């Protein structure tokens, strides 16, 4: 398309045009040497008289596993730790304030296999585990908040899909566990863990109010809404999802959540095709297989005004840096008044009615009136 028409098409599809960020030669050299994509964009907000600008930089990381899945657990995990070192270094040079990794980033996405041995060995303590200790030093060194989604093992040997939040001081602030567990084909993850019990936590960090909506939770609109009701300004969605299953949904869900809830949303997906030692079946009548498709990356950030960044590569490791002004959240709320017009009282009454009748085997009053 001619440049003018292409620019208009992109405006219609993706919102306003975003200014690309420039990175230092050193950061670019690290990305080239370590073979990962680095890209960056800037969301701007209007200047205000009563509030100073609240400009921060987010970093989203997508990557493939390094070692074969038949390698020892420690070899696999440590290789991924080391893979992050140059990416963290580049993020620091790019002045990233908050860095978030993909879902279960320290391991292959082995939950599809439904085998317990050896995949449960990847589970570790959120507070005292090797991954939190590894990242804490970089968080403190670079004055950076780091969000680390891992497979967590708690003190009772219960396993969770968890995002650990490490503050800029290097201390673990807390954790947020995955609220919704898929039972879709190969993604039958309840074999390993059940729905989380941490609710919709929002972490009040040096760089704003942050929340983590892990993977499958992005399909549940009210799940996104709850983080907004709790005051989130940025909601990360670290994921692991393959093209044949979810790619048509990928560019829509996080962007819709940002619009509906008045915050920035960050969609993160891993890359690569992961093959496992033993075959497994999807229980769909098709032959057993050793992988379940291509993780298509395409990580992006969406703003509450509906604009979004381009996505990272579908096939390469990458670091997406996004500069944004958190003041845009309130500015969009003032313009569109979605929160003002939510009618939460009406939803509360109806949800209570539905839950009560489900528990007691009764029909709702609306259905009874329709039948009459």
Summarize this entry quickly.
This protein has helices at residues 3-14, 25-33, 73-93, 130-141, 221-229, 243-261, 327-336, 344-360, 365-371, and strands at 19-20, 37-42, 55-62, 98-100, 145-153, 159-166, 172-177, 183-184, 187-188, 203-205, 208-212, 234-239, 264-269, 271-273, 294-296, 300-302, 318-325. It is α/β, with parallel strands linked by helices and 372 residues long.
Descriptive report:
By secondary structure, the chain is of the alpha/beta class. It has one domain (3-341): 4-Layer Sandwich (Nitrilase/N-carbamoyl-D-aminoacid amidohydrolase). Helix content is 31%, strand content 22%. It has nine helices and 17 strands. The strands form four sheets. The protein has an eight-stranded mixed sheet with strand order 1-2-17-3-4-5-6-7, with helices on both faces. A five-stranded mixed sheet has the order 10-11-12-13-16, covered by helices on one side. β12 (234-239), α6 (243-261) and β13 form a beta-alpha-beta unit. The mean pLDDT is 95.
Keywords summarizing the entry:
372 residues; alpha/beta; Nitrilase/N-carbamoyl-D-aminoacid amidohydrolase; eight-stranded mixed sheet; five-stranded mixed sheet; 17 strands; 22% strand; globular
């Amino acid at each position: 398309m001619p440049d003018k028409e292409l620019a208009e098409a992109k405006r219609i599809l993706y919102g306003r045009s975003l200014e690309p960020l420039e990175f230092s030669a050193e950061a670019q050299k690290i990305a080239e040497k370590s073979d990962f994509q680095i890209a960056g964009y800037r969301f701007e907000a209007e200047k205000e008289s009563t509030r100073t600008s609240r400009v921060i930089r987010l970093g989203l990381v997508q990557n493939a596993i390094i070692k074969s899945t038949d390698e020892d657990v420690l070899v696999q995990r440590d290789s991924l730790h080391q893979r992050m070192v140059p990416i963290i270094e580049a993020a620091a040079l790019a002045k990233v304030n908050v860095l978030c990794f993909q879902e279960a980033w320290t391991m292959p996405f082995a939950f599809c296999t439904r085998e317990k041995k050896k995949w449960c060995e990847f589970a570790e303590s959120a507070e005292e585990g090797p991954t939190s200790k590894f990242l804490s030093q970089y968080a403190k060194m670079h004055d950076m908040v780091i969000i680390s989604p891992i497979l967590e093992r708690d003190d009772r040997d219960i396993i969770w899909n968890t995002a650990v939040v490490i503050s800029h001081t290097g201390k673990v602030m807390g954790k947020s566990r995955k609220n919704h567990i898929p039972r879709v084909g190969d993604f039958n993850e309840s074999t390993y863990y059940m729905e989380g019990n941490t609710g919709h936590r929002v972490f009040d960090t040096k760089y704003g109010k942050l929340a983590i909506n892990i993977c499958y939770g992005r399909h549940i609109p009210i799940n996104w809404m709850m983080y907004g009701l709790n005051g989130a300004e940025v909601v990360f969605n670290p994921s692991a999802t393959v093209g044949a299953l979810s790619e048509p949904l990928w560019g829509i869900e996080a962007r819709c959540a940002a619009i509906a809830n008045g915050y920035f949303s960050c969609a993160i997906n891993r890359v690569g095709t992961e093959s496992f030692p033993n075959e497994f079946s999807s229980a769909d009548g098709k032959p057993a297989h050793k992988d379940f498709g291509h993780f298509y990356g395409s990580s992006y950030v969406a703003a509450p005004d509906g604009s979004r960044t381009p996505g990272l590569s579908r096939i390469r490791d990458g670091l997406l840096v996004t500069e944004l002004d958190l003041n845009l959240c309130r500015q969009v709320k003032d313009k569109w008044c979605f929160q003002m017009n939510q009618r939460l009282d009406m939803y509360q009454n109806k949800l209570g009615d539905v839950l009560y009748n489900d528990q007691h085997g009764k029909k709702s009053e609306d259905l009874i009136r329709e039948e009459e």
